[in-house]
Amino acid sequence: MDLLQSTREAFSLLFTGNPELWRIIFISLRVSLIAMLVVTPFAVATGFFLATVPFPGRRPLVILIQGLLSSPTVVVGLLLYLLLSRAGPFGSWHLLFTQEAMIIGQVIIAFPVMVAFTLSAVQGADPRAHETALSLGAGTTRAALTTLLEVRFGVMASVFNAFGRVFSEIGCSLMVGGNILGLTRNIPTAIALETSKGEFAQGIALGIVLMSAALGVNYALAFLQGEGGLK
Amino acid sequence: MSGPLLQIDGLRKNFGSRQILDIEHLALYSGESNVVTGDNGCGKTTLLRIIAGLENAEVASYRFQGRPLSLENFPPRLRQEIIYVHQHPYLFKTTVAANIGYGLKARDLRKTERDRLVNEAMEWAGVAHLIHVPPQKLSGGEKQRVALARAKVLNPKLFLLDEPTANLDAEARRQAIELIQQMCLDDNCVLIACHDYELINLPRMRRMILSDCRLLLQPTTTIKRQVV
Fold first, then answer.
1. What is the number of domains present in chain A?
2. What's the average model confidence in pLDDT over B97-113?
3. Which of B88, B90, B105 has the most A C-beta neighbours within 10 Å, making it the best mutation to test the interface with A?
4. pLDDT attached to residue B227
5. Is the CB of B181 inside 8 Å of chain A's CB atoms?
6. What is the interface pTM, i.e. ipTM, of the complex?
7. pLDDT (0 to 100) of residue A231
8. B93 and A150: CB-CB below 8 Å?
């Protein structure tokens, strides 16, 4: 099957509203967006804390988190599989091969990415921003939120990076989701499966959606960055 | 005469092995304007930052309105009474009005009341026409006036102004001095760290000099610019 014909079929699948295809897209978006909603507050708070509060062991912890940026998603999947499998410590929760397991996996993958980027953004903030907020009578929480708002371009970059990583990851989703049609099959796992079956049209259609959705979500988030951090 | 607004005894500050401040006694009174001068790097900014609770130091006693307080656990309530204005003020990347209203919002003031006070403060500082200009696009003098309005609107008991006229052109400097002069006439306490002879020689200004880590009172005669 040549590439041109496969691409033509891919568009036809997309625009004829193939329900199986759209279900896969829906699962992908649902899992990744919920994972981002769960991880963002914790990761941003952790990044801010690491950037502003000195404590013993802070430096090794920062190095560990930065190191985790390059952790392979299949290793996260493997560890999570062992924890959630029937014989594992959380086996009684019956989460293996569910969307919840995929969400947990994506939260684990996104966490170090967001912490490292937020840490870097806050460290680069003008120290006068936090001092000015405190001096004008802001409490600790308000002053922290003000500083985060001042470096929103960097914080939003952490969201983009984390979303990009979880939305396109395949290793963990495949291992703890199981690639079950209509339940845990998301875009990356579906592309791998369809391609291995020789169903290139479905694979290309999903690839187009993966790219478009990633760009679309990033454009939506970019509105929150204001003028793109132009100085 | 009532007791001092702020009284600090036995203040010592070191940066590593280098001693910056060794002040036996400092008392500031309500309705009084103070200026502290001294060479660059002598510790004027550090002193202001310590008073504002932004920098730690070894202090035998820190009393505000007679109440003993700890610099390590600087009470948030006190931050509403003492406002420190940086030499190069930082304006939040919001709007001029939001910058001036920031402290009022932190005090949970109702929006209508907040808007009224912000408008008054903008008129006072002559920045009302800048309402639609992004704070990052303001000139140094305009930023200084917004920062002074942002401090004034909170009506604190003590203003700490760090080199408020440094790096300003003649017109911006004149406008800033006018505003500071008004702040000094009100019934609050002002402590200014600067080298500006016009500020130092403002009427009823109590002058101090920081030299060799110590704070010394200066005579009240007009100080002339020294020609080196």
1. 1
2. 94
3. B90
4. 40
5. no
6. 0.87
7. 46
8. yes
Judge whether B103 is closer than 8 Å to chain A, CB to CB. Answer: yes
Q: What residue spans of chain A are helical by DSSP H?
A: 3-15, 19-52, 58-68, 73-84, 99-123, 127-135, 140-150, 152-168, 171-172, 187-197, 200-222
Q: Write down the pLDDT at residue B225.
A: 47
pTM of the predicted model, to two decimals?
Answer: 0.84
For chain A, percent of residues with pLDDT exceeding 90: 66
For position A104, which CATH number holds? Answer: 1.10.3720.10
pLDDT confidence tier of residue A162, bands split at 50, 70 and 90: very high
pLDDT for B159: 93
Q: Return the domain boundaries, chain B.
A: 6-87+155-217
Domain that holds residue A200: 3-223
Average pLDDT score over chain A? 89
Closest CB to A137: pick one of B86, B107, B136. B107
pLDDT at position A1: 55
DSSP B3-37: PPSEEEEEEEEEETTEEEEEEEEEEE-TT-EEEEE
Q: Does any domain span residue A228?
A: no
Q: Would you state the structure tokens that stand for residue B100, as one six-digit string?
A: 């001036």
In B, minimum Cα distance to A136 occurs at B103
Which residue, A226, A82, A79, A109, is CA-closest to A170?
Answer: A109
User: Does the CB of B80 have a partner CB in chain A at under 8 Å?
Assistant: yes
Distance from CA of B84 to the nearest CA of A (A): 6
> Cβ separation of A136 and B102 shorter than 8 Å?
yes
Tell me what the mean pLDDT of segment B113-135 comes to: 93
Mean of all residue pLDDT scores within chain B: 88
Residue A159 counted as domain residue: yes
* CB B29, CB B1: distance < 8 Å: yes
Residues of B in contact with A129 (CB under 8 A): 90, 92
Give B93's contacts in chain A (Cβ within 8 Å).
Answer: 149-150, 226
The reply to whether CATH 3.40.50.300 applies to domain B6-87+155-217 is yes
B86:A129 CB<8 A:
no
CB B106 within 8 A of CB B153: no
A145 touches chain B (CB under 8 A): no
